[in-house]
Here is the input.
Amino acid sequence: MFVFANLLNAIAQILDWGANIYVWVIIARSLISWVNPDPYNPIVRFLYQATEPLLYRIRRFIPFLGGLDISPIIAIFAIYFFKWFIVKSLMDIAIRLKMGAAI
Here is the structure.
């Protein structure tokens, strides 16, 4: 059972790291939107392609507020909720499985 617990813990850690990286990608995309970036730059294209699917879905439900796009803020809140709920739950399950196997 400890092998499954270690697997769950590893999956939770990878999800946590991935969520942190994606938050930084959203922040970088938000920062470059304040300037006039070259749309043919590979970094700019990556940032837009990586974040636009999520931000577009949020924008469909949340309108612009006075010309301000708050979809990155909502996306970051959603990612942190995912981290605090799903990732933490997976880690807690892994800990309980390890404790149960140790008894």
User: Anything to note?
Assistant: The chain has a mean pLDDT of 92. Residues 71-102 form the longest helix (32 residues). The radius of gyration is 18 Å.
